[in-house]
Write a structure and sequence with these properties.
Structural class: alpha/beta
Radius of gyration: 20 Å
Shape: elongated
CATH superfamily of the largest domain: Hexapeptide repeat proteins
Helix content: 10-25%
Strand content: 25-35%
Number of strands: 27
CATH topology of the largest domain: UDP N-Acetylglucosamine Acyltransferase, domain 1
């Protein structure tokens, strides 16, 4: 299932039923697990491991050196999980020496055309990146987050689980979980109610999140005061403690 026109380095490790299209190049230190399909004209390089059942479309660049002027050329890594779809012209760079030197992509993610995932990023599971969404280095993206087309995320920011960004959103600070943001610069526009309904969140969860949203984003409180209100005994939904914990651990500040 390897096209005769593909170039696979002798040291590359391929699982069962891996398909590699014409003119694709697989580097010496690449590992690809079972049932992964790789289209034509893809380049996979560096110390890169790719899990099972992934689909990587033409002209992607996976595991190339980070776009970082201080990168000294050491052996850093890219780890991609299972059942991800990575569409045309997507670029995912491996890590730098900072921290553990690994860029990580989880499972069941959908990266549309021209997406860029920079060095040392962390993607959770079931995320969706629309066309041309781009992450700078060291960005963390929570499970089920959705990035609209042309969304841009500044380095070291965190994108919370179940949030959604509008087309062209410029995210310069952390985006809390469950929230909709849009604009340049990004600002909050309510709770991602429809997405939460589709994922099985209860009416109580969503109702309490709407109350919490008013406290955090519309109540005129400082962030510390808002967090204190989220930590009192009135709440029954576990989503409130998730939101409070995210806000407490923000280092870049919170989009409000």
């Amino acid at each position: 299932m390897i096209d005769d026109r593909a170039i696979v380095a002798p040291g590359a490790r391929l699982g069962e039923s891996v398909s590699i299209g014409p003119y694709t190049i697989i580097g010496e230190h690449v590992s690809i697990a079972d049932n992964t399909w790789i289209g034509p004209h893809v380049v996979i390089n560096g110390h890169t491991s790719i899990g099972t059942g992934n689909k990587i479309y033409q002209f992607c660049s996976i595991g190339e050196a980070p776009q970082h002027l201080a990168y000294p050329g050491v052996d850093t890594r890219l780890e991609i999980g299972d059942f991800n779809t990575i569409r045309e012209y997507t670029t995912i760079n491996r890590g730098t020496e900072e921290k553990d030197g690994i860029t990580r992509v989880g499972n069941h993610n959908f990266l549309m055309a021209y997406v860029h995932v920079a060095h040392d990023c962390r993607l959770g599971n079931h995320t969706i990146f629309a066309n041309c969404a781009s992450l700078a280095g060291h960005v963390t993206v929570g499970d089920y987050a959705v990035l609209g087309g042309f969304s841009l995320v500044h380095q070291y920011c965190r994108i919370g689980a179940h949030c959604i960004t509008g087309i062209g959103a410029v995210c310069l600070q952390d985006i809390p979980p469950f929230v909709v943001v849009a604009g340049n610069r990004a600002s909050p526009h309510g709770i991602n109610s429809k997405g939460l309904c589709r994922r099985g969140f209860s009416g109580t969860d969503i109702a309490e999140l709407k109350q919490a949203y008013k406290i955090v984003f519309r109540g005129g409180l400082s962030l510390r005061e808002a967090i204190m209100q989220l930590e009192d005994d009135r709440w029954t939904s576990a989503t409130i403690s998730v939101l409070a914990d995210f806000l407490k651990h923000s280092k870049r500040g919170v989009t409000r």
